[in-house]
Amino acid sequence: MSSATDVAGRALEAARGEEAEAVAVAELSGLARFAASEVHQPTLIENTVVTLRVVRDGKVGWASTNRVEDDGLRDLATRAAEAADSARPDETFPGLAPPEPLPAIEGYDEATAELGAGEQARLAATAIEAATRYPVYGFFTSGVTEIAVASSNGLTGEQRLTDATALVIAAGEGASGYAEGTSWAADRVDPAAVAREADEKAARTLEARAVDPGHYRAVLEPYAFAELLQYFAYDSFGGQGLLEERSYLCGRIGERVFDSKISIADDALDPRGLPKAFDFEGSPKQRVELVTDGVPRGVVWDRETAAQTADGAVPTGHAPPLLLRDYGPLPFALSVAGGEAQSVEELAELVGDGIYVTRLHYLSIVDPREGVITGMTRDGTFRIRDGRIAEPLVNLRFTVSVPELLADVPGLTREPTLVNQSDFYGERFPFGVLTPAIATARFNVSGSGSAPGI
Amino acid sequence: MAVEAALAAGASYADARVVHRRSQHVSTKNGRVENVRDVESEGIGVRVLVGGAWGFACDRRLSDAGARSAATRATGFARAAAGPHDRRLAPLAAKSGVYRTPLARDPFSVGLAEKVDHCLRAEQALAHADVKVTQAFVRAQREHKFLVSSEGSDVEQELVECGGGIDALAARDGVFQIRSYPSAHGGSSAQAGWEHLDALGLEREAPRVGEQAAALLRADECPAGVTTVVLDAEQLALQVHESVGHPTELDRVYGTEASYAGTSFLKPGDLGSLRYGSEHMNVTADATTPGGLGTFAFDDEGVEADREPIVERGLLRGFLSSRETSARIGAGRGGSMRADGWSRMPLVRMSNLHLEPGEGSLEELIAGVDDGVYLETNKSWSIDDKRLNFQFGTQIAWEIKGGRLGRMLREATYTGITPFFWGALDAVAGRHEWKLFGLTNCGKGQPGQSAHVSHGAAPARFLNVQIGVRA
Q1: What is the C-alpha to C-alpha distance for residues B451 and B262, in angstroms, rounded to an integer?
Q2: Do B39 and A83 lie within an 8 Å CB cutoff?
Q3: Global pTM?
Q4: B262 in contact with A at a CB cutoff of 8 Å?
Q5: Which helix (H) or strand (E) holds B207?
Q6: Nearest CA in chain B to A126
Q7: Do B385 and A395 touch (CB under 8 A)?
Q8: Helix or strand or coil: residue B214?
Q9: How far is CA A398 from CA A216, A361, A379, A437, B469, in A?
Q10: Cβ count within 10 A of residue A386
Q11: Residue B83 in this model has a pLDDT that exceeds 90
């Protein structure tokens, strides 16, 4: 794998004389994907991509390449300069990020970085062998990612990240269960335990029934709540959503709109997550309080969106990678404060009568301004009766207002779980949500779908 | 070099794909240039069968060392893969060939500055009171790729895409609405040159788009109920994609996509016997469609492009398949394998999947409705893991009363179960209403892959549809 720091430095050198910024991402990863307890799509990736931003007379252009030898970098500099020349002067452009001290973070594990294809295949096999009831579907992956930035302002930064995820669906005819484990250190991910959790969950889903549409109380496992919150965050917790008036937080910052048990931050510095030291323009990552005790406090910003605010918002270290620029700054390290419940069973007691949801599938934003999201439950949906997790249910269609779901929260579990949110499109950028399980007084079931299982 | 190295390392089959992809993306927002970017990526991906097990590895270096490294690592990964492994491929007569997208004006010959101007002009025409955000974008992509296999396939293809779109975002008194053209979620692209952009007429359509975005702020919410629904061609393209395209992918039918995108309500034995929809439903997979994003001469396994029925008069007639899944089901020949660039393994993907036209016009479809709604342009989309329960929302709708369009409606949604919904297909408009839409955001696989696919459709009418889902 090429050194990201070396590549970023040489790309900047290729653009000598320009006002420029180079961001390099180097990836070495393996993913052993399995279906029906057999590895069927094993993928090994080695790549290094560098993105060069050039500013000429207030005009900004980008180019990127993975041809990181000298001739490729010369072409890169030429294409980035042409892109800049083709733009229009941007009076709101705040300039490239200045050098700032970067936080010291964890998030790199040498043993994880050294995992090779043989070990990745073996860890996938560990998951496959641990499921005794049902065939399993999923993957084990690990990778090392280096991100480096260098700019004509004298800014330099580098970070090495490792990540590992085991994801398992145990499934047979009419039964399926889900579990996953994610960490920046592979020895904290136990593929066998993940497989056993999925296998045991699947065994409880046979003979699932439908329920009538309507509003239910519910318990959402961390897998389910993490995905729902990440989708809500795309519109509501980013600076661009606020500027474009599609965020639920528009006009509501400082008002109590959620249950007082709800506190949410974006914290890429937390070693329990997948830590990052800086964003894709080299600004240091900051912990951002999004919601405190049920009161929205703010959103995340990059330099560009912060400069467009009337009240002078401060960049928080959330500039996205080039291919996500259209979405503006987004929180990729959501962290939900834990509650008092010791277990999901205790949350079920608080709910009394309702629905228990393991995970979600295929979410879509129906109304961004009101935080309305639809999707399906999957691989472990149950009825809660008399305070206990009871009979299995078919996959349910839900259409929920996330703010309403968060407005009345009987409880959360004490310990958060890190839930992977990367589907590994494009260049590897591991991220996840750190969240406990949550109980809510309002979860709208709008229909029924297929039964669990394959 | 890569194929030889893989065979020398013990592979019984190997293929190598070299891909160079370059793309340009220009976008403007509120009169400001947001993005002018020029992105390229190249590398080699090597896929092998060793003892019946797949292995895949890739390397960005287009050199002997890169090719050998990818081949060796792929064979090593295949050897380490858990499972009994007995994967076989449908027979393929090795072919050589060269294919290039026909172009009138190469989109890369159009300067970035001209692309910026195009966006700014279109965006200015979107301006309207209550429209808070105007945005426009254009994109171009050239993918030059080579495939060689140990069975003698030797194919070179150069596929060029061009597309764009505009959006108006309106907000007032806590209500937020969006209107897009020619399609939501990234406009519409085609395998074509700049002439496709000219034909879209972004600047021409912009005033209507801006006006409708503003008007939606004052529109009534779509009521709830069960009624007759007429879908425009754009929404229908996504309906076909989600509820016909994905469930007929044979890898999903066999469960190999279970851990991410999901499986299918279809079973292998349903071929030729399952009633998918009404007699008005005719769906065709066609990798030869001029302008289609899924158009090629050969797929990424070297299988020649073809046009095949998937649903005929409502009956399931075909699956989208690979050589492996074709061998497993004992039918077909593959032809739907596509990879996202050089660093991903080919998967069964849609190419171009069309709802074939019927007769008459959109106006005639609407005239046949006494009480119902007409829905236009997708806004939200979701479907379950077996592709049965779906819920879609559209940007705009109109009530239909007495065969005529009435008041404008916002927050329109509809939901259904796939075979029941298609079973209630009452009519499809004719050829002159049929349009091709190119989507660039079809996700599948782990690690994730984005596919570019096209769908042709004409507006269609469905009976007894649940609309107006609320939170």
Answers
A1: 16
A2: no
A3: 0.97
A4: yes
A5: helix B202-216
A6: B82
A7: yes
A8: helix
A9: 10, 10, 15, 18, 10
A10: 9
A11: no
Looking at this protein, which amino acid is placed at residue B360? G
Q: What is the pLDDT of residues A419-439, one digit of tens each?
A: 999 999 999 999 999 999 999
What does DSSP assign to residue B249? B
pLDDT of residue B82: 79
Residues of B with Cβ-Cβ distance to A128 under 8 angstroms: 82-83
Query: What domains can be seen in chain B, in order of their start residue?
Result: 2-218 (3.30.2290.10), 221-467 (no CATH)
- Cβ contact A44–B262 (<8 Å): no
**Cβ-defined contact of A43 to B345 (cutoff 8 Å):** yes
User: pLDDT band for position B84 (50/70/90)?
Assistant: confident
Cα(A272)–Cα(A368) distance, integer angstroms: 30
Q: Are B394 and B377 in contact (CB under 8 A)?
A: yes
Contacts of B60 in chain A (CB under 8 A): 46-48, 66-68
ipTM of the complex: 0.96
Report how far residue A344's alpha carbon sits from residue A221's, in angstroms, rounded to the nearest whole number. 7
Beta bridge partners of B436: B456
Domain with CATH 3.30.2290.10 in chain A: 4-203
**A4-203 CATH choice from 3.30.2290.10, 3.40.140.10, 2.30.40.10, 3.40.50.1110:** 3.30.2290.10
CB contact under 8 A, B385 and A450: yes
Q: What is the pLDDT of residues B276-292, one digit of tens each?
A: 999 999 999 999 999 99
CA–CA distance, B471 with B468 (Å, rounded to integer): 10
CB atoms within 10 A of CB B404: 12
Q: Which residue has the tokens 């096209």?
A: B454
Q: Does B267 touch chain A (CB under 8 A)?
A: no
Instruction: Give CA–CA dist B235/B467, Å, rounded.
Output: 15
Distance CA B410, CA A311 (A): 33
Q: Do A326 and B27 touch (CB under 8 A)?
A: yes
Coil, helix or strand for B304?
strand
Cβ contact B444:B387 at 8 Å: no
Which residues on neighbouring strands pair with residue B143, listed in sequence order?
A: B21, B159
**Cα of B359 to nearest chain A Cα, Å:** 33
Peptide bond into B447 cis (omega under 30): yes
Q: Are B172 and B217 in contact (CB under 8 A)?
A: yes
Residues of A in contact with B82 (CB under 8 A): 32, 34, 37-39, 121, 124-125, 128-129
Cα–chain center distance at B211: 29
